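queue> pop job 88
queue> type: inverse folding (structure -> sequence)
queue> payload:
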């Protein structure tokens, strides 16, 4: 089965360009509501909580207990979204993975429309995105879908096999351009539907530069980062952790 693992990273900091302190918490709930309501294609939902607020963690644990989140990982500290995505892929059971953040709203049939060209043209080197990205890299069309030589930094749908061929995301400020460049060098093209099936409602990074430098040093020094040590995870409804203790 062409099962999809949807991997969402969350961190409840103040948005870089907007004043309200609880925006990311609001975004998270809108994102989860839209995913749960509008994902009808066979998929599992994996959420990486990068040291979010207690209320957010309680909310995500409750969704996991209800079976709406299949796998929930809570890191004690914010390890940056790139590290969270890498964590999520290790837990993924699907043939395909969708990498996204907590500030996207997903519309009805978004996954069916996004995965369609990957299923119909398995011989072509494609990475799909459920939204159009206005840039200078447009190289044509496939049916009604737009083709770009370079793609969106987030909300990407690809095979797990391709992810491991390219390698994990580096934990650095320019991790997206670096990783996307490696994808392009392998001859892959980015494809998007003619209509946006997701809407981004937030902006900004999920880790300030001083925190990121600290995380980078820890990784570059090759200090072991163990998933069970840095975070606690729950698959399906098997939860044994008491939040915030």
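queue> result:
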């Amino acid at each position: 089965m062409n099962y999809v693992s949807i991997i969402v990273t969350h961190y409840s900091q103040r948005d870089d360009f907007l004043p309200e302190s609880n925006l990311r918490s609001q975004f998270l709930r809108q994102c989860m509501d839209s995913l749960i309501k509008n994902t009808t294609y066979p998929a599992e939902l994996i959420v990486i909580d990068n040291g979010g607020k207690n209320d957010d963690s309680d909310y995500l644990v409750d969704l996991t207990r209800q079976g709406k989140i299949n796998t929930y990982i809570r890191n004690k500290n914010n390890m940056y979204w790139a590290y969270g995505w890498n964590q999520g892929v290790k837990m993924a059971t699907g043939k395909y993975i969708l990498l996204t953040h907590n500030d996207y709203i997903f519309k009805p049939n978004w996954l069916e429309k996004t995965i369609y060209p990957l299923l119909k043209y398995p011989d072509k080197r494609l990475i799909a995105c459920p939204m159009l990205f206005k840039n200078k890299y447009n190289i044509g069309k496939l049916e009604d879908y737009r083709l770009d030589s370079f793609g969106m930094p987030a909300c990407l749908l690809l095979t797990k096999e391709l992810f491991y061929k390219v390698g994990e995301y580096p934990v650095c400020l320019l991790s997206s351009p670096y990783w996307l460049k490696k994808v392009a060098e392998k001859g892959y093209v980015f494809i998007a539907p003619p209509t946006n099936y997701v809407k981004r409602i937030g902006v900004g990074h999920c880790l300030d530069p001083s925190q990121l430098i600290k995380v980078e040093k820890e990784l570059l020094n090759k200090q072991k980062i163990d998933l069970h040590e840095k975070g606690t995870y729950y698959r399906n409804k098997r939860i044994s952790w008491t939040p915030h203790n």
